[in-house]
Amino acid sequence: MATHTLEDIRRDLAWTREQLLQRLSRLRDDAGHRLQPLSADAVDRAQETQNDEVLVRLERSTLSLVNQYQHAIERIDQGLYGLCEECDYPIEAARLEAVPQATLCGVCAGPVNARAAA
Ligand SMILES: [Zn+2]
Asked: What is the DSSP string of 44-66?
């Protein structure tokens, strides 16, 4: 396993957050088209509505990721990175390797997230 200094991790987190923010602004550009009137054609209209829902979902999940990365960067700045926010125990190294923005240990994050990071 490669060892990363906190500085490396912080840079990676900030870089990823930057990419996510760019994606978010592209998504919002696309969403701007929603302001235009829907097509008169019913089939087009259904398709447009569906696309809008996908965009909204994507926007929401991207925003939540941005917040996670932002939060992890703040934990580094507070000297708390790698500690579980819930139980204060160190987060498993393998989990941090897989999910660098994690702020909960595998136990506190619950079985779904623990499996994803395993
Ligand atoms: Zn915990």
From this structure: HHHHHHHHHHHHHHHHHHHHHHH
User: Is 86 strand, coil or helix?
Assistant: coil
CB of 107 closer than 8 Å to CB of 114: yes
d(CA 91, ligand 1 centre) in Å: 7
Residue 53, number of CB atoms within 10 A of its CB: 10
pLDDT digits (tens, 9 = 90+) for 68-100: 999 999 999 999 999 999 999 999 999 999 999
Structure tokens at 96: 């941090």
- 7-11, 49-53, 84-88, range with the lowest pLDDT: 49-53
Neighbours of ion ligand 1 (CB under 5 A): 84, 86-87, 105, 108
DSSP single-letter state for residue 2: -
DSSP code at position 8: H
